[in-house]
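Supplementary Note 3. Input sequence used for the single-chain structure prediction.
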Amino acid sequence: MGTIPVYRWRLAPDGLATRRQLRALGLRPGGQDVAAQVERPRRRREPLVAYLYRVEQAKPVRPMTPAKWAALAKANAARRVCPECRRDAGYVIPPSLGMCTPCAFPEEQRAA
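The predicted structure, written as discrete structure tokens, is reproduced below.
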């Protein structure tokens, strides 16, 4: 495997983009190899690295199928169900609590 070009932060040539930049353009790398990388220096730590891909070789993003939309809706609905009381909380349950707010703080509910 050969080495790839390394560019300093914000000094990459035109025609190269990161995954996020490709996605903003409605594209994906499409199986191509990394063309280059950008390094952002940091103090007292290793630099941040972002891989670059050629925009002309990128492919359009695949559209969501009805089955993928249904699976995504089911997964998001599961994030709303409290594992403690088994009710739909009406919001995504915070992972830090692991349950809906009334189940996590029952004494506050009784005091009100």
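DSSP finds four helices and six strands in the chain. The helical segments are 19-24, 66-78, 101-104, 106-111.
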